[in-house]
Predict the structure.
Amino acid sequence: MMNNFKMPVILIGNSFKYEIEATLKLFFHENRFAFTDDISNADGNNYVVARVQNEREISVEIMIDGVSESLASVLDTSAESAEHELCRLIYRILTRRMGIRPPWGLMTGIRPLKKFTALMRTGMSRVQIFETLSRKYEISPEKLNIGYITAANQLPILDMIDRKAVSLYVSIPFCPTRCSYCSFVSHSMDSALKLMPDYVKLLCREIEITGRMIRETGTKIDTIYFGGGTPTSLAAHDLRIIMECVAKNFDLAGIREYSVEAGRPDTITEEKLRVIKELGAKRISVNPQTLNDDVLSVIGRKHSGEDALKAFELARKVGFDNINTDLIAGLPTETPNSFRNTLDRITELSPESITVHTLTIKRAANLFEYAGENTDNPASEMVAYSIDKLLSEGYLPYYMYRQKNTIDNLENIGYARKGFESYYNIFIMDETQTILGVGCAASTKLIYPDGKITRIHNYKFPYEYIRQFDTLMKKKEEVNECLKKISSLRQK
């Protein structure tokens, strides 16, 4: 089926659109779906009918290229089980029909570890957890194993989360160029230079406003993370202004982690690294994604693999002893051999942490236009090698997330030497600590003491952020109310 084809999905007696779409996406990565309750739409060569009758009778019919297959079952439990059973029937039809068995089975959602940790907290054994998740989601043994190991490493850190504190995310949404796989709202420095003075000034104002709320509510900052984009796209002078503003408005003596994504090697200079270190950040990321020069050229990077190695060594020279590197398995034209070469050379550098992402074909990325060319992408072989290699090198998987449209329905895993796990990465994935986002395209995630989660999104584009800054700041009142509730925990 073509990228622009919308497969009709007819929901009869239910409204389980989100999970049904997520299940279909396991098999139809590039397709879009048209949801309706009108059965007359089931008249083409490709459609899905998902039906619930009397809250108990479940049936699915799937027509693909004019050939139909159906399954049905009867429930005696809740509506939630009806949703899961519909997805299970869809999954079973499509695994047979498409010849695909997703390694995570019919588990969807970006936070698979929550399923593992929830069962661990009940006291279940490893065997019981495997049996439970295998039965419900049909997860492969390999993914059960890496999921369990990652959750076991993460759980002690989760137990140390200070829910009476919050973390700070500082958004620098600029890059030298946009990589072909990227869907983040980031802007090239050539087009952003004229906006930079106003952006830096207003970002500092937002940092000041946020710092004042922290002080007035008696809360505290636990971790700080500069992301983007590429924060080191900024000139050293602008980076210093922003980081000095952070140091002035927050008590850095009490934070547990301060990270800056140095990111792309072609933006890293000794002057910028010294600014970062001088102003309090102890953890940085140098993110080559691959050391294969041909692949770097294909994805739109303007640096070489050798540039990445030099940037890493420069960070060591400046004195950083907590460096992360990001790699991507399954980049266009990457081969299993070239990926192995990249990972082997990176491990020789002995960074404190390594994050292995799997290529995701996102609709907003330039790469989506050529999505079909990645049908036979060997990402699964690369990911399997990374798991074996990094475990054997003493790296422990400590956080994991999954995204829609990831090649082979795989995952992203952060590995670290013991004691170098990133708290921020765990907090943002587990959703157990409030994250205050400042800057263009930043997202604030408020975690209330009762478990309620509220998201506040800043404007996506720098000109919007600058033009409507005062309007945006009016949203801070909700942040202030949440901080007061968090602060009340500190007083008990």
Notes: The CA atoms of residues 292 and 305 lie 6 Å apart. The chain has a mean pLDDT of 91. The longest strand covers residues 57-64. The two ends are 59 Å apart (CA to CA).
